[in-house]
Amino acid sequence: MTLVEGVKKSFETKGMRLLLLLVTLGVVATFLRMFKGLGGMTNLTDDYPWGLWVAVDVFSGVALAAGGFAITAAVYIFNMKKYRPIARPAILTAFIGYSIVVIGLAIDIGKPFSAWHPIVMWNHRSVMFEVVWCITLYTTVLLFEFAPSFLERVKWDGALKVVKIIHYPLVIAGIVLSFLHQSSLGGFYLIAPAKLSHLWWTPNVPYMFYLSAIAAGLAMVTFEGIVSTRGLKREPETDIMIGLGRGTRIALLVYLVAKFADMTYRGNWQLLFAWDKASIFWSAEMLIGVILPILLLSVKSIKESENGLLTTSILVLFGVVFNRFNMTFFTQSTGVEGFYFPSIWEMFVTLGLLAAIVMLYRLAVMHLPVFHEGPLNR
Amino acid sequence: MTTTAQIAQKGVLVDLTRCIGCRGCQVACKSWNERSVKKTINRGEYTNPQKLNSDTYTRIEFLEGAFGQAPAWHFIKDQCMHCKDPACASACPVGAFKKLPNGPVTYDFDKCIGCRYCMIACPFQVPKYEWEKRIFPWVRKCTFCSDRIAENLIPACIKVCPTKTMFYGDRDAVVAEAQKRLADNPGKYVNHIYGKEEAGGTSWMYISSVPFEQLGFNMKIPAKNLPDNTWAMLREIPVKVVGFVTVLSLIAIFRNRGNGHNAESKHKEEN
């Protein structure tokens, strides 16, 4: 069965057809965005120029795709052989994730056909400039890190050799680029100390974003590992998942300590006791997304069971997404009446992008040697 | 040939005690910049439109209230502050915003990609977007009539004001004038020049007879250049890259040593 025949066959299931439908709806909504402009189909306003697409497709998407650098660091830099089987799936998730982020960005900006401008028009004082460059470079790195899976399937040995030679430099470049843009996504908010509550704003916000991204990446790899294993009826990789759970707990602890230390050093605890919207949302984010998972992952029966690991990873993912949402929206809501809620078309675009991620992941693991046992060919 | 040192940065002092709320500035600005109108609703007050928008670069806010003891009606002119070190100019990834040596912060549509980060960055909530435009949406804001002052004319709003609410000149002279008015009229003005230090100093400054926070001015803007916050992080990048690459390489070499050796001995064992 050729690759093309295999892909066609994959769309014979109801699940894949539903995903394809969602992707199609997203494409339709994207066409609408092109023909009616942002004002014609989104609920974005001067008060809320950044909405669902920025909060989910860009900020959350990048945090959730952090498994790429986390696992490649573990496997190739730290030589933790136990995690080798999940290196390719992690790279796949990250590659698909970042590609979708880039597409989401192109849809969100007001002039998509000018998206190439940052390549030749430079502003070295701009965080956005640095992030655009890092994400572009990192997506390219991910392409080459993922390439062996594809090249092995089409048996292109020449290209395979080249890619293998540059493997270690790629991994190091990927980790460094990830550090830069994961932290710079937090850096976006450095310009707005008067707008964002200092429960979140600190000069150290880049480090907060980086640490939480590590936790999010590990949680995402855990989540996707357990779900895909169950959904695709593969052998459970419980040992690996337990190890990831340990790593997630450590990452969360480091993040928690860093956050508390920063709050203390900057004297911001009094903001918590204001019990306004900001402090309630911040508390929920820390309790549900950080403290609760740490506690749960300290209980033997939870941290060593797949269900327990699945639950805690969902909590962590929720916490990080919630954090990105909070920062995006609280920055904009300061001194503004009224609120923002995404339009149905905005939701179609985001749903389409999310469906595309699941769809492409499934196609890849079915027909390419992503899992250690090879393509699933089903 | 004039050098940057010889071009003095222009400034404007908005003396809020002089404004009578005629909105000649609002009209003159629209006229000069060929802006259109947006549909609004009658909310039973004079302030219209409710906020700046892509067609309204300046507007007067009408505030009725009990300020101190006597009820009063205050009029506040709102427009881009043309900061000395603008957050928008530092935030824009393609450098579409520029602080000109003579004062105005200008916008270059040809560079703009429409990311709207400038709108997030501006502490004064100034840049507005042309959401309704499909193909070429601009970011819109007061231009300080940079085209007029380049020809030694004064900005449209200032030219048209019947009560000389705005005092236009070199920024240093404007600050001096503000300080003179505060000193010469004890009790008349609140002892603060809004914009002198806020966001590291802006070209447009205000003096008022009523505390600024009562007029809706944002008092939480720090007295330092906002771009410094971002630059503090960005300028560390080269060092961090070099450090990270070095550390990762060393760890990789150290942790992966013996990989080839182990494979060799395993091979021998299997034979």
Overview of the molecule:
The complex is a heterodimer of chains A (378) and B (271). Chain A contains 16 helices and no strands. Chain A has helices at 3-10, 14-41, 52-64, 67-77, 87-108, 117-120, 127-154, 157-165, 167-187, 205-231, 238-265, 269-272, 277-296, 300-303, 306-333, 344-367. Chain A is globular and about 60 Å long. The model of chain A has no long low-confidence stretch (mean pLDDT 94). Chain B has a single domain, classed as Alpha-Beta Plaits (2-Layer Sandwich), CATH 3.30.70. Chain B is 31% helix and 15% strand. Chain B is built from 9 helices and 9 strands. The radius of gyration of chain B is 26 Å and the shape is globular. Mean pLDDT of chain B is 92; it is low at 261-271. Chains A and B meet through α2, α4, α7 and α9 of A and α2, α3, β6, α7 and α8 of B.
Helix content of chain B: 25-40%
Tell me the major beta sheet of chain B: 3 strands, mixed
Structural class of chain B: alpha+beta
Which pair of chains forms the biggest interface, and how many residues does each contribute? A-B, 60 and 57 residues
Q: Which overall shape of chain B is indicated by the principal axes computed on the Cα atoms?
A: globular
Which H/E pattern describes the elements of chain B?
EHEEHEEHEEHHEHEHHH
Strand content of chain B: 15-25%
Low-confidence stretches of chain A: none
Cα shape of chain A: globular
Total DSSP helices of chain A: 16
Largest sheet of chain A: none
What is the CATH topology classification name of chain B?
Alpha-Beta Plaits
- Number of separate helices of chain B: 9
**How many domains make up the 3D coordinates of chain B?**
1
CATH class of chain B: Alpha Beta
| Oligomer status | heterodimer
